[in-house]
Automatic annotation (TrEMBL):
<feature type="domain" description="X8">
    <location>
        <begin position="107"/>
        <end position="197"/>
    </location>
</feature>
<keyword id="KW-0732">Signal</keyword>
<dbReference type="Pfam" id="PF07983">
    <property type="entry name" value="X8"/>
</dbReference>
<dbReference type="InterPro" id="IPR012946">
    <property type="entry name" value="X8"/>
</dbReference>
<protein>
    <recommendedName>
        <fullName>X8 domain-containing protein</fullName>
    </recommendedName>
</protein>
<feature type="compositionally biased region" description="Low complexity">
    <location>
        <begin position="246"/>
        <end position="261"/>
    </location>
</feature>
<feature type="region of interest" description="Disordered">
    <location>
        <begin position="201"/>
        <end position="261"/>
    </location>
</feature>
<feature type="compositionally biased region" description="Polar residues">
    <location>
        <begin position="220"/>
        <end position="236"/>
    </location>
</feature>
Length: 261
């Protein structure tokens, strides 16, 4: 049928195999997700997957470094005994980081705006129960009227609590509820920069933070004021490379080992 339609109206037929293949923007950033993309033997698909990993580690890939990214993606897309998710994660997490990764020193562990509010709320509950150096009862008011901003406050402080050995792949995952976001990303989220650890001062009393609504901003601030942990929150508008999907609640930071989602 696709070929018949193409002959009748011109153009190329639908590539069903491509459309049904695993999407590097949607698979988990884990060994399983890596295997799904590697099985396609596609450098371009693997490149997207690896760039998502970089974003989840608080880094971006500058345009000038894309040839290096493509070369690495080609190596991992071709398969082989050394082409594993664990090896890739070890390479990207090494010190110093690969030259093609531009790491943001102001990156913070924050709520993943593409995660369901219920998932984020579950991660908030777990983190509050396991925090050692801060109390969730001390969250400032401007961070308590939105589940994602509440999570920004809590996740960023929990990650800092883990010390210098903390890894975005292990301590900033929460089964997809969190992302180690570069400042260029969380600065676009309404109020996030005021809530993450080390963030800006709170907005003056009686003022409203500027809405972060733009052509590539997938989130729009909610007008409701739920209590921390509730789920009536912001909703998606579009997809950014930084964002991911998940459905399972977190059990512990260790459960996220070698898995960003």
């Amino acid at each position: 049928m696709p070929s018949a339609v193409a002959r009748a109206f011109g153009g190329a037929p639908v590539d069903a195999a491509f459309l049904c293949a695993a999407n590097p923007m949607g698979v988990g950033l884990s060994g399983e997700g890596f295997s799904e993309i590697a099985a396609q033997r596609s450098t371009s698909q693997m490149s997207v997957f690896i760039e998502r990993m970089a974003n989840h580690m608080g880094a971006i890939v500058p345009y000038s470094a894309r040839p290096q990214l493509e070369e690495l993606a080609g190596t991992y897309a071709s398969g082989g005994g050394d082409a594993s998710f664990e090896r890739l994660a070890s390479l990207m997490g090494s010190t110093p980081r690969p030259a093609w990764m531009q790491v943001d020193p102001n990156a913070r562990c924050a709520a993943n705006r593409n995660a369901a509010p219920a998932l984020v709320a579950g991660a908030i509950d777990w983190t509050c129960a396991n925090a050692r150096t801060f109390s969730c009862s001390d969250i400032p008011a401007h961070c308590t009227n939105n589940t994602y901003r509440t999570a920004d406050y809590i996740f960023s402080r929990y990650y800092e609590e883990q010390g210098a050995a903390a890894s975005p792949l292990e301590q900033c995952s929460f089964s997809g509820a969190a992302i180690f976001a570069p400042s260029s990303l969380y600065n676009r989220w309404t109020g996030s920069a005021q809530c993450v650890v080390g963030g800006h001062v709170a907005p003056p009393s009686g003022t409203t933070p500027q809405m972060d609504v733009g052509p590539d901003d997938p989130w729009q601030a909610s007008t409701s004021a739920p209590t921390p942990g509730t789920s009536q929150q912001e909703g998606p508008r579009s997809t950014l490379l930084f964002l991911d999907y998940s459905s399972a609640p977190p059990s512990s930071p260790g459960a996220a080992r070698w898995s960003l989602l």
